[in-house]
Model the fold of this input.
Amino acid sequence: MTTQHTLGTKNMSIEDKAKAFAKNVEGKVQEAIGEVTGDPKDKAEGKAKQAEAQVRHTTENIKDEVKKTLD
Done:
């Protein structure tokens, strides 16, 4: 039972990291579009998405470290 739980948690962590990566890319694209078009709203929203992605990555890294410590 523990193995199943651990594997499920690992998969969720990978999924969460992939979502954070995608959010970061989305933010970079939106920021670049804002730069090209001169739209400060797009630029700001792109930067906000990148910041959100960084928080998600940091959260996942902390979870990984806690799991390593507990194992």
